[in-house]
Amino acid sequence: MKRTLPLLLALFAALSARADEVQVAVAANFTGPMQVIAALFERDTGHKASLAFGSTGKFYAQIANGAPFQVLLAADDETPAKLVKEGYAVAGTPFTYAIGKLVLWSTDPKLVDGKGEVLKKGGFKHLALANPKAAPYGAAGLQVMTKLGVAESIKPLLVQGENIAQTHQFVSTGAAELGFVAYSQVIKNGQIGAGSGWLVPGNLYDPIRQDAVILAKGKDKVAAVALMSYLKGDKAKEVIKSFGYELH
Amino acid sequence: MESADLSAVWLTLKLATTVTTLLLVFGTPIAWWLARTRSPLKGIVGAVVALPLVLPPTVLGFYLLVVMGPHGPIGRFTEALGLGLLPFTFPGLVIASVFYSLPFVVQPIQNAFEAIGDRPLEVAATLRASPWDAFWSVAVPLARPGFLSGAILGFAHTVGEFGIVLMIGGNIPDKTRVVSVLIYDHVEALEYTQAHWLAGGMVAFSFLVLLGLYTFNPARQKAL
């Protein structure tokens, strides 16, 4: 035992010198693609990416209060900019890793038509939307309804998910007949997988620019820097595109 | 405080009052049965009643969402009755909260009934009191501290509920947006000032409730 302990310690030291771990906070809508990218990243670089999924607003509060995250993949571009301004993130590192697309989606194959006319016609009791105050996809959905002139009539039917993952859950369980979700959540082989949906045209809402940033706790960390450059690489871009995001 | 905050406070009090009343009505027979029965089912019923104590609210919330949704058995039933679906409604929250706060009301009352023992009821019977009469004029007055604890804890626990409401509520103003959810909302939207008002209020409220419980009902302290 006396001899094996230093040996083990040396082994751990050797391992940790090569493979670093990065703590990543990931916006809920990017859950699917990030799981794929993290696996590729680990395979290609030997570093480990430990992922936490949630809403960007919650991550902001946690990061501002000392959460150990080293990289943030936000659902917007405002939060990373704010974190940089307040000194919680490293200046010069934010970049747009994906531009999100919004879908009006239902598990009912007949409910949502290809032009979103259902919003005017009605025939549903609940429409799920991510909290527009905190979630960019929720704000975008609200913008769409305002532009189409249906925001007031639909307002009493709105149910809010605290983030886009919960909003998707409301729709997928059928508790709400339809809802605004991220395209990445319902895409399968390049199209809306199940039920019915309307890929909302980009002119009805401001682009959902999703920025990544290195946080103060990830400054000069090898794995954090490696992950950021991996996100800009072709392999990651391909995954991001396959989940229905646009690239910068 | 803004009007949205006030309406959330009002809704929360309405929910907690409704739930506490329902729990006293339906929880008392359950507590009585659990305290008096020699049935082998006692263990099972007691365990089911206590489940919300150990289950994460997310488990209850998730199952309630599925069961009360359009594909679930309760959802089909309420739709067949023409009542519509329960998620995202105030009655839906009431039902969820009744499950969630059940042990907090049943257990103190059950403990109080058990503490009475057989003797006072036997005496009542020898004085020709019917079981119904004995229950109301002997057992209930003797178990008063248990009822008080149960009511206060059930009320306070419903006020403090968060996870289930988040999962089946849908955050609708005046219907399902209770204080705990609104605090979460404020924090998410970085409105820390408003969050502090409500969160501080919750701390003060909870402290006062427990202070009252311990001050005016010292005998029940051990049961908590």
Task: Describe it.
The complex is a heterodimer of chains A (248) and B (224). Chain A is of the alpha/beta class. Chain A has 11 helices and 12 strands. With 224 residues, chain B is an all-alpha fold. Chain B has one domain: MetI-like fold (Orthogonal Bundle), CATH 1.10.3720. Chain B contains 11 helices and no strands. In chain B, helix 1 runs antiparallel to helix 8, helix 3 runs parallel beside helix 9 and helix 5 runs antiparallel to helix 9. Chain B is globular, with a radius of gyration of 20 Å. At the A-B interface, helix 3, strand 7 and helix 8 of A face helix 3, helix 9 and helix 10 of B.
Largest sheet of chain B: none
Mean pLDDT score of chain B, rounded?
A: 90
Residue share in helix of chain B: over 70%
The CATH architecture designation of the largest domain in chain A is 3-Layer(aba) Sandwich
User: Looking across the biggest beta sheet of chain A, what order are the strands in?
Assistant: 2-1-3-12-4
Number of strands of chain B: 0
Distance between the termini of chain A: 56 Å
Structural topology:
The complex is a heterodimer of chains A (about 250) and B (about 220).
Chain A: H1 4-18, E1 21-27, H2 31-45, E2 48-54, H3 56-64, E3 71-73, H4 78-85, E4 95-100, E5 102-106, H5 118-121, E6 127-130, H6 136-147, H7 151-154, E7 158-161, H8 164-172, E8 178-182, H9 183-186, E9 187-188, E10 191-192, E11 196-199, E12 208-214, H10 222-232, H11 234-242
Parallel strand pairs in A: 1-2, 1-3, 6-7, 6-8
Antiparallel strand pairs in A: 3-12, 4-12, 5-8, 5-11, 9-10
Chain B: H1 3-36, H2 42-54, H3 57-68, H4 73-80, H5 90-116, H6 119-126, H7 131-142, H8 144-159, H9 163-169, H10 179-188, H11 192-216
Helix pairs in contact in B: 1-5, 1-8, 2-5, 3-9, 5-8, 5-9, 6-7, 8-11, 10-11
What is the compact description of this entry?
The complex is a heterodimer of chains A (248) and B (224). Chain A has helices at residues 4-18, 31-45, 56-64, 78-85, 118-121, 136-147, 151-154, 164-172, 183-186, 222-232, 234-242, and strands at 21-27, 48-54, 71-73, 95-100, 102-106, 127-130, 158-161, 178-182, 187-188, 191-192, 196-199, 208-214. Chain A is of the alpha/beta class and 248 residues long.
